[in-house]
Amino acid sequence: MSIESGLPAGFNPNAYDAIIVGAGFAGAVCARRLAEAVNYKVCVLERRDHIAGNAYDYYDEAGILVHKYGPHIYHTTDDRVDTFLSRFTDWTPYQHKVLANVHGTLMPVPFNHASLKLAFGDEEGERLYQKLVGTFGQDKKVPIMELRKKNDPDLERVADYVYENVFLHYTMKQWGKTPDQIDPAVMGRVPVFVGNDDRYFPQAPHQGMPAESYTKLFERMLGHDLIDVFLDVDARDVFDITDTKLSVCGKSYGGEVIYTGALDELFDFDLGALPYRTVDMVFETLDEDQFQPVGTVNYTVSENFTRITEFKNMTGQVVPGKTTIMREYSRTYLPGVGETPYYVINEPENLELYRRYRDRVAGLLNFHVVGRLAEYRYYDMDGVTASALDLSDELISQH
């Protein structure tokens, strides 16, 4: 792998069998697979000044490994994804746990046995828990809509508490909605866990954090002799797209193009901007060993930020007397000004606008879209990886 800033003078796109836009999970997975499976010479164009996409991490001034674009917790049920990514990193064991700060009391999320006792007191919480066990069985995840359907005042009381104190105000902050704008169907899916397991991803057999860093993982994934990476290159400056033809740097290009960026940006928002929520992340280094007991604490009923992440609690890094935390402030994404779009707003009119952009490239047989932005959908890291593995399978089979 070579990494350069900017394209060199006389850059010839046709020296490459594939051009990939984006050096995050989607782009890096495709680059590696095409290089090693079919010996493609691969060019990766990355708009930022670093690889690894939103998973990029680095050591701050206190020497603490932090995630620049928010916490990334690796977890998957997909054995193929785990096998592929594990080629490029060892994993530090980590089971993600989340607490909700409810009026100053920290209780596990999803709401469980311990949460009930914290919310209602030991005796009453235990009584309510035993009613949940008798109704639904133990170690079951039950949506609060199911609690309401039983027409039992005790179960409705639990549902009301979870809705009001865990879901409603947090969702309003996260998505910028008022209570009447929140879909009741979404509200009904909020779970209560009838059991003691306080892990956030209890069903994922593969969990952990990269033993060194996500950035090191990407360095190894892109570390192939047939892969060249060019940073600080915006695809909009080098691509010229019509319905049936694609040019790169003014030259007709017939190799494979894999695009992982936002389609509306590629076309300068000429049909309108796809809406997202973004997050302002405020980092703070504190002169103490530990700020909070777990990696993530959600502030569900108070504060104007949504959550606080403490990175040492996730990575297991030991830095005596220092810790770095990050507060997240959710707001509307402003297109075209360099902000990071994080969360798709999955509403019919937005999906229709995305379809119109997608149709713009449907006639380009060598143009493929993959990833969170290019597909306009929310993905965890394993989902992006799986989608990229599927696309690269398709391209490899056609070789």
Question: What name is given to the CATH topology of the domain at 2-51 and 222-272 and 344-398?
Answer: Rossmann fold
What is the number of strand segments? 23
Q: Can you say what the CATH homologous superfamily of the domain at 2-51 and 222-272 and 344-398 is?
A: NAD(P)-binding Rossmann-like Domain
For the largest sheet, list the strands in their spatial order: 9-8-19-20-21-18-22
Given helix and strand content, the structural type is alpha/beta
The biggest sheet amounts to: 7 strands, mixed
How many H/I helices? 13
Mean pLDDT comes to: 95
- Which CATH class of the domain at 2-51 and 222-272 and 344-398? Alpha Beta
Q: Which architecture name of the domain at 2-51 and 222-272 and 344-398 does CATH use?
A: 3-Layer(aba) Sandwich
> Given the C-alpha coordinates, what overall shape results?
globular
End-to-end CA span: 22 Å
Proportion of β residues? Answer: 15-25%
Share of residues in helices: 25-40%
> Which regions are unreliable across 5 or more consecutive residues at pLDDT < 50?
none
Radius of gyration: 23 Å
